[in-house]
Amino acid sequence: MFVGDWVDVVLLDDDAEAADRGIRQLRRQLAENEIDTRTVEASAPVGSKGDAAGFNAVAIALGGAGGMVPLLIAILRDWLGRRVPEQRVKLTIGTDSIELDAATTDEQQRLVETFLRKHEEG
Question: Which residue windows are transmembrane per the record (predicted)?
Fold first, then answer.
């Protein structure tokens, strides 16, 4: 079980439509794996086209079986691997955040795994 029940994932991109598409792809992958999600209000990046609030972010449920972390890491790793270099991803649990950019797949996996495991209880 986690200290926080949700991890917020925000896709930061100056192109609001690209951010929307990226988050919809992540939501589909999570739904295919029966992982609960909810909408998160997120502010639009400076200089973005249109209003990105609410559609460039998703909250992912972390409660449940201990197998959740490896599955979530695998899903995020796959999803992050398809992001373009201009996009950044911010993960937040409670008040703790990590921001990823065009890191290599191995770097992304290590950073995401460390971040999520840091928030596991006992």
Answer: 53-76
Tally of residues, the chain: 122
Question: pTM higher than 0.90, yes or no?
Answer: no
In a domain, 1, yes or no: no
Q: What values do phi and psi take at 12, rounded to 5?
A: -95, 115
How does pLDDT run across 13-59, given as a tens digit for each residue?
Answer: 888 888 888 889 999 999 998 888 888 765 554 554 444 444 688 88
Question: 47 in the Ramachandran plot: left (φ > 0), alpha (ψ -120 to 50) or beta?
Answer: left
Domain assignment of residue 51, given as a range:
6-118
- Residue ranges in the chain assigned as alpha helix (H): 16-32, 68-81, 105-118
